[in-house]
Amino acid sequence: MRPAGIEGVPYNIITWMAYQEKNADLGKVERNDSSVGDGFDDRILEGEAAARSSNPYHAGTVTTIRASAMEEKEGSIQLIFNEHEWFHFSAELSDLAGRNPSLTFAIKPKKDGFFSVAYTGAPNFPLSQVSEIWQPLIWQEKRFPESPVMTLAFRCPIPTALVNDGIHSLGVMAASEEYPFDPLPVAENSRFGVLVRNEEGNAQPQLLAPVPGGEGSSMKVGEVFQFKSYLIVEPGKIHEAYETIARKDFGFKNYRKNEALSLNRTLENIVDYSKSEYAWYIDSLKGFAYSTDVPGAVKNVSSLSPLELAIVMDDTVMFEQRAYPTLEYMLSREKFLFSLDPEQKIQHPSRSMMGPIAPVSELTSLYNIFGPSNAFFLELAEREFAGSRIRNLDVAEKGDSWINAMHLYKASGDKKYLDLAISGADEYIRKRVEVKQTNFADPYFPGLFFWNAFTSRWVDLTELYEITQNKKYLEAAHDGARRYTMFTWMSPAIPDTSLLVNEGGKAPLYWYLKSKGHEQMYFPEENVEAWRLSEIGLTPESSGTSQGHRAIFMANYAPWMLRLGYYAQDPFLMEVAKSAIIGRYQNFPGYHINTARTTAYEKPDYPLREHKALSVNSFHYNHILPMASMLLDYLVTDAFVRSEGEIDFPSEYIEGYAYLQNKFYGSKPGTFYEEDSVHLWMPNSLLTVSHSELNYVSGYDASGLFMAFMNQSEQAATSTVRINSECALGTIEDITVLSDDGKAATLGASSFEVEVAGQGITAIRVEGLTPMMAFRQRLFTKGSDSLDRLKEIDFGKARAMVINLGAYDRRGYVYLEEDDAHYSSVTLYYEDGEGTIKNLTDEHYPFEFTIPLKGTEGEISCWFSASNTEGRIEKSEKFNL
Fold first, then answer.
1. Is 840 helix (H, G, I), strand (E, B) or coil?
2. 414: CB partners within 8 A, 6+ apart
3. Label partner for 662 (CA 20 to 30 A): which of 94, 163, 675, 836?
4. What is the DSSP string of 552-616?
5. Per-residue CA distances from 609 to 221, 549, 606, 870 (Å)
6. Are residues 770 and 789 in the same domain?
7. 590 and 601 in contact (C-beta within 8 Å)?
8. 869, 842, 839, 864: which is closest to 851 by C-alpha?
């Protein structure tokens, strides 16, 4: 494999030594600093390109053969070919009365050598005459390869390329039996490849088997190689054909269930893990270690995920140890990736305090959550809207997008922002959604790397639909989500058998981590049902890393697809969503499925190890809290969908970066059937539920506790539920079933029994119990009146702000942009509310200070004293905060 050399798109393709020197057409691609770390293979990126071609027809001598006659025989057609000096060839068309006929061929060499058979008999069209094309993974809409390029089997979500002629989607597809489930598909065991561009430059589905030079292509005299394919003619658009093939040929369905543990318990395990030493949060840098990719760096992408968890789970420790420090990080740092090492270039980190790194949507969400007493969040958002910033890698983001205008409208209520959002989205739909893209230069999403850059902004269009209720935004979002499903695995088909994994007690060892000195991991050898091991419903990581990161567990698209599938009445989206989340892990599972089938990342203790003791897959520690937020989003959305909107909690927006978008819940009450002021409240271990197939959401209002139980299996579930007395005081006095179906009955003072239909929901109100609050109630209780303050200070290019946290607390946050090239230490002096002078000293860059202000009234006086690198003391003028 070698880089494809597509401008702006990192993507690796299979190549060959050109059989003839004149056909050596592969160009050398210069590696950049972004293409370093987990998922980037030095053997590919630094491999020799000379004398190579990405065109499989340049790999050897090409012999074209056509059938000289046909014979009908018992419902099949035998294709007769003339003898060739190098081989005997035969083929048969069968399944003629079925949905799509099959084509099976056999080649028997007359001399030793490497052989590959290409079927080039499908209809072909000039690109101008087709509606759209698809070749996994990156050629879709009308983005067309510049020459014939092969996608190997292991990167085919379904094993075909497709061309749509305006009426039908046409393809040549490997039969399911030719694409085995085990071992895990990788480049080396790929038995076939597909193409969408032919030698004449036309759009034509093609299939080659075996892959030239690949498994099975070295043949001896007298050996027979046989291969079965299907000639695909499916009505409708390509994404419609994709669903049909997934369901009818590879058995896709609502196939997952909790099996061992509820999603609630998994969420609680991940939250516990996030606060442990194993989560590698570096307190002094206020960020999660990013050493998997960039040694010595930390990375945060949002303060909203830990803040949401702190609120919904009523978790003071989460707020103090993760949410609040991350909030200060997002207000002060220049980029998500922060490294104190000025020589570090991998993935373009920053060591500058030139914040806020928080995007417009995060600043507006923070304003909506904390309220008008923190108006500086809105002020900062409007500043960011007026400019541009590089937040991740080297990709510049323009502030005044229609998406940011939408978020500013939601925070400010100013109609001018709504008008900008609507006019911008309308133009976006005209130019990006309604027009098939012909190249990779998307002006609306610079830097095509993650899959959401290859489709339209369907998540944001979903948000705009929820604000406006305009169906054109729903239709555009639906179209984008359907196209996104074509990055999710729908094959190989899952066998109805059990598989042996962790043979000999050894888990798979990821080669990248082995090269970094990570230790072999050991898990018990076990036989498990194949569906538990399947990647179906997940996506590869990105265009640039898809050859190694086969399927990532960060499936943030799932809650959005679940919700959008409900709005659009599309079961496929909802089933893809469920397949990405349910029954996959019991704690943070690391990042990806990448080497072999295993149950290692299912285990509840899997991540509870030191970094070098983890070697099955990679750990990106900044993903832990976004994953927890994703699971919470899925739970709340599942309740919303199953209740048909009767359970509905207002949300803010977590943008993060790359895939890490989720809805934020908990800052405002929502509806729970007939009640309209229910607060989402799900503290750790609130409920003990005896049946693992039941997930739940819970909340409270003045009338009692509310719970909704969602059954993830096809079978009805009856479960005993116990309410933790440390979370809710009192005795159950009454239980009312609010949903149309389901039953519940009291068993004791703090326990009850609940019945939930297969794939159903049972929602109840429990009276007589009082929730015990540790944090959230104080956060949303009005605190002492204070002036909103945001100040720019000349000394050290400092910025100071007051953060009002309701009755819980009030804090001043001050940071200097000036770094250790100028100062060796900085002291901040301030007068407390009683006139006492206090000080805080920071002897290491970054220079930042958190001032306790709870109980103070009005402004306080502050000033700096700093030692510069020449040993002199510099002092600032006083300023009020």
1. strand
2. 408
3. 675
4. ES--THHHHHHHHHHHHT-HHHHHHHHHHHTTS-SS---SEE-SS--SGGGSTTTT-S-GGG--S
5. 53, 22, 7, 44
6. no
7. yes
8. 839
Residues 648 and 752 in one domain: no
Start-to-end CA distance of the chain, whole Å, equals 58
Q: Are residues 231 and 274 in the same domain?
A: no
Which of 761, 778, 795 finishes a domain?
A: 778
**590 and 703 together in one domain:** no
Regions of the chain where pLDDT drops below 70:
784-788
Structure tokens at 72: 């009908």
pLDDT of residue 134: 98
Number of other residues whose CB lies within 10 A of the CB of residue 341: 12
**Does residue 29 lie in a domain region?**
no
pLDDT of residue 787: 64
- Indicate if 422 and 502 belong to the same structural domain: yes
Contact of 392 with 377, CB cutoff 8 Å? no
Residue that terminates a domain, selected from 614, 636, 664: 664
Q: Does 60 fall in a domain? A: no
| Residue tagged 């109805």 (tokens) | 496
Residue 222: CB atoms within 10 Å: 10
SS3 percent helix, strand, coil of the chain, rounded to 5, is: 25, 30, 45
Of 560, 588, 385, 392, which is closest to residue 485 (Cα–Cα)?
A: 560
Domain housing 182: 69-247
- Specify whether the CB–CB gap between 519 and 615 falls below 8 A: yes
pTM above 0.70, yes or no: yes
Residue 784's pLDDT is what?
67
What stretches of 36-192 adopt beta strand conformation (E)?
A: 52-53, 69-73, 76-80, 87-94, 102-109, 113-114, 117-119, 132-135, 139-141, 151-152, 162-164, 168-174
Q: Do 763 and 789 reside in the same domain of the chain? A: no
The answer for residues whose C-beta is within 8 angstroms of residue 48's C-beta and 6 or more apart is: none
624-642 and 571-581 are packed helices; what angle lies between their axes, rounded to 10 degrees?
A: 140
